Backbone:
């Protein structure tokens, strides 16, 4: 079931009505049944898959908890043990817990890898045709990652082990996040997921506003940009030079509208049910560096890879071994530095491979890592200049230039995802330097060849402006702090900020804005018969 | 404490490492910095800081970092 389908609207409308009319004790069981029904639309086998993966995570976490309990009991029962004996016993227990955690994570990853890579491998090898036509279960990455965070967090002692299987199932199957995230952490989501709620007009109306805004971004802005992107993708060589620059901008508009639109729908629906999901985007194009961009864009994925891949990899025994070997060659300081760079690149490589099995995705990941490392090193090189010219470096012009630079870098890297052919991408990047072609921007030939009417170009331009304004208006102070740390341990901020409060106080303004957005969607949206509203891009993950 | 301050100074020469109290909250330390710092601390103090100790409160100031080191030495 797609979030932008009529089936979903009917499903969610019925669920919402029942949710606030049944007795409160029945709300969460209803939500669980609703989530299963939602996922069953993608196939009953998928329901069995998600339930069996939840069984695994449940069993492993219980085992980790049992070992912890046993350790506590044994230490309490043997007060005569020396400090050394107690430490040795604790270490042994921890090792057993670690083995359970690794086993759980490995099996969960194996399941994900099978569905993600087996069809591509089977297709490449040319055998096992049944495997190559395997249907990818919708949202498998998101619920697998969620279950991994749960198992690891129980091992790390960050969250208490969940004793109710039904409650853990609700965590993994909760429908708004199933399609394309956000990747929720058990500790955060459980704070509101299991609490029965009464009807809160403010929360429901704010959630509804966000859902409609999400549909507008997806159906009007992203899907209009998609027409031009599709035209370029069909004949990339025809649109070299200036076409690459346009693709860079248009695909960024498309993916931003598509992905953040999907998030607005998911988080807005959840808010209408009184359940808070983590924010996944915090005004990403206000980023001055690529590192900051990744703390603002697809935050739950970035923090997943930071907390559950980068940190463990960097502090692993293997990393220590590499660092020790490098120390002989490079000296202590550079050995540590190079080891951190290597684990950064490895983490980004894995991030790229998660996005897809192709070489273009691996390269996209690696290049992001390289740019981040270079960015941090260059910032240190330019630190004296910052001190020498503080007015410029702390001024708005410098900030704006840095934002444009970040936008161009991430946009350019993202074209690897569009062209999906590394040599072709490199040759098209090279064509960007052919300055003669840029005249086509002024004489209008390139604009008319991309399949959009002049009206649609204006619509797109207005849409981009609107997204920037709304993004700024809905930014809350708390979000800034969240961006800085990478959001690992803080309470998710509330979308809307002062804008939301202002709308809450002015029902007329709320009604007018809702009516305006609905009219825009009805007139300019790409939906219904005769149109093919595209799937959300992140559905395929 | 001096070792911690020197390590912070090396990572971020532009800050007053001894008196900075929002290294994480103010976005000065990135994840790459945190990992580099931990590896250096592990080496300098012969400790092993586990991943679960990577929390903003443990890295917000030189004092907090040093308290973490002392705690790890007791383990």
Residues:
């Amino acid at each position: 079931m797609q979030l932008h389908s009529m089936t979903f609207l009917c499903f969610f409308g019925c669920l919402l009505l029942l949710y606030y009319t049944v007795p409160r004790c029945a709300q969460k069981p209803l939500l669980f049944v609703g989530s299963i029904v939602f996922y069953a639309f993608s196939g009953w086998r998928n329901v069995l898959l998600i339930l069996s993966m939840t069984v695994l995570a449940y069993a492993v976490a219980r085992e980790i908890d049992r070992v912890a309990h046993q350790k506590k009991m044994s230490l309490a029962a043997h007060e005569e043990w020396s400090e050394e004996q107690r430490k040795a016993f604790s270490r042994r227990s921890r090792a057993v817990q670690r083995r359970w955690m690794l086993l759980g994570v490995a099996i969960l990853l194996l399941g994900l890898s099978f569905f993600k890579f087996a069809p591509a491998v089977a297709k490449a090898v040319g055998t096992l045709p049944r495997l190559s036509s395997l249907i990818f279960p919708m949202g498998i990455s998101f619920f697998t990652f969620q279950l991994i965070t749960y198992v690891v967090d129980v091992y790390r002692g960050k969250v208490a082990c969940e004793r109710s299987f039904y409650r853990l199932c609700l965590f993994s199957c909760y429908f708004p996040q199933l399609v394309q995230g956000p990747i929720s952490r058990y500790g955060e989501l459980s704070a509101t997921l299991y609490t029965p709620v009464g009807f809160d007009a403010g929360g429901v109306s704010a959630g509804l506003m966000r859902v409609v805004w999400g549909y507008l971004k997806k159906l009007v802005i992203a899907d209009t940009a998609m027409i031009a992107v599709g035209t370029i993708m069909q004949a990339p060589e025809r649109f070299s030079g200036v076409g690459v620059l346009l693709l860079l901008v248009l695909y960024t508009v498309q993916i931003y509208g598509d992905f953040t639109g999907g998030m607005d729908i998911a988080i807005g629906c959840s808010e209408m049910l009184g359940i808070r999901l983590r924010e996944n985007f915090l005004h990403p194009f206000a980023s001055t560096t690529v590192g900051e961009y990744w703390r603002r864009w697809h935050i739950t994925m970035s923090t997943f890879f930071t907390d559950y891949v980068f940190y463990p990899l960097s502090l692993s025994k293997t990393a220590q071994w590499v660092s020790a070997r490098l120390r002989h060659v490079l000296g202590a300081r550079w050995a540590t530095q190079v080891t951190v760079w290597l684990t950064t690149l490895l983490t980004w490589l894995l991030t790229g491979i998660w996005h897809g099995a192709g070489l273009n995705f691996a390269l996209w990941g690696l290049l992001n890592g390289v740019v981040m490392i270079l960015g941090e090193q260059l910032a240190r090189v330019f630190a004296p200049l910052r001190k020498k010219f503080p007015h410029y470096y702390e001024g708005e012009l410098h900030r704006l230039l840095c934002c444009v630079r970040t936008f161009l870098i991430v946009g350019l890297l993202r074209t690897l995802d569009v062209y999906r052919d590394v040599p072709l991408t490199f040759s098209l990047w090279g064509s960007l330097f052919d300055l003669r072609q840029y005249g086509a921007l002024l004489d209008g030939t390139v604009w008319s060849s991309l399949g959009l009417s002049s009206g649609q170009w204006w619509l797109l331009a207005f849409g981009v402006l609107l997204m920037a304004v709304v993004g700024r208006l809905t930014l809350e102070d708390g979000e800034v702090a969240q961006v800085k740390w990478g959001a690992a341990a803080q309470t998710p901020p509330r979308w809307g900020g002062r804008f939301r409060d202002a709308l809450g106080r002015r029902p007329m303004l709320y009604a007018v804005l809702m009516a305006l957005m609905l009219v825009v969607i009805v007139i300019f949206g790409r939906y219904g018969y005769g149109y093919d509203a595209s799937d959300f891009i992140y559905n395929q993950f | 404490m001096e070792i911690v301050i020197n390590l912070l100074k090396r990572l971020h020469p532009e800050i007053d490492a001894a008196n900075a109290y929002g290294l994480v909250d103010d976005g000065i330390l990135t994840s790459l910095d945190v990992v580099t710092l931990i590896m250096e601390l592990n080496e300098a103090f012969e400790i092993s800081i586990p991943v679960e100790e990577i929390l903003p409160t443990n890295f917000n100031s030189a004092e907090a970092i040093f308290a973490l080191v002392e705690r790890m030495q007791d383990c």
Q: What stands out?
A: Chain A has a mean pLDDT of 86.
